[in-house]
Amino acid sequence: MAEEGGTRIAINIYAKRTAKGEEVFMPPLVFDIDHIKLLRKWGICGVLSGTLPTAAQQNVFLSVPLRLMLEDVLWLHLNNLADVKLIRQEGDEIMEGITLERGAKLSKIVNDRLNKSFEYQRKFKKDEHIAKLKKIGRINDKTTAEELQRLDKSSNNDQLIESSLFIDIANTSMILRDIRSDSDSLSRDDISNLLFKQYRQAGKMQTYFLYKALRDQGYVLSPGGRFGGKFIAYPGDPLRFHSHLTIQDAIDYHNEPIDLISMISGARLGTTVKKLWVIGGVAEETKETHFFSIEWAGFG
């Protein structure tokens, strides 16, 4: 897949160290709204996770950042469609790195943008108000500026305009954009190795190849935890289709036993929610990916 207009998705990954000293990646995040739109066009939906604890409605209507699966990042990176920024700093360290001079500069930029936005809104609303007055015959092209000002005062129009001004929030974080990351000095192969290392630590190296095989067949994949799987697969955009498959982690189906209790309960759950329960793996000899679907026959 070629890049669209040269756009590369900016992905931020925060790395933490466990008590054993192992490096673990936190969920990959995308903060740019234009990048999120492009990801959806490519069949990567992710999960919106931004919220405001003080606003209850934000628990339903979530916003940026968009949380991706590690498989999404791997696919984008291997197809040369993303710039992965690996951040090993703690949040406190990041904030401490913002000097007073840098903070003052950021504040000035924000205030300038805010004032320009307010000026544009005032002009737009005043022009809209004049157009309405002309439409109902209160004024015409010969009406003077003084007469317009008197009309505005009598109808409290200026106060209404000021109370209706809103703050336009930037699509991207200026602080996040300027953070120096360890990945700045890493090659694409180094980043690929770090991403695959997460799979080796979890012992699920082959799961990415299931993800890739399903994407190649046109499926859109999302996290499947709520349906008892690794992924759920949609035949198209999730806003248009229900998911059809619940896919489990990859297994070595020639040598690895399948737990019958898990298979039976998974098949029953899949049938109840009208999804196929799917297991799969990669054949060592041919490197081909194979899938097996299981249903609860005669259920209900």
UniProtKB/TrEMBL annotation:
Belongs to the tRNA-intron endonuclease family. It comes from Saccharomyces pastorianus (Lager yeast). GO terms for cellular component: tRNA-intron endonuclease complex. Keywords: Endonuclease, Hydrolase, Lyase, Nuclease, tRNA processing. GO terms for biological process: tRNA-type intron splice site recognition and cleavage. PANTHER family: TRNA-SPLICING ENDONUCLEASE SUBUNIT SEN34, TRNA-SPLICING ENDONUCLEASE SUBUNIT SEN34-RELATED. Heterotetramer composed of SEN2, SEN15, SEN34 and SEN54. Interacts directly with SEN15. One of its GO terms (molecular function) is tRNA-intron lyase activity. The lineage of its organism: Eukaryota, Fungi, Dikarya, Ascomycota, Saccharomycotina. This is tRNA-splicing endonuclease subunit Sen34. Residues 28-84 form the TSEN34 N-terminal domain.
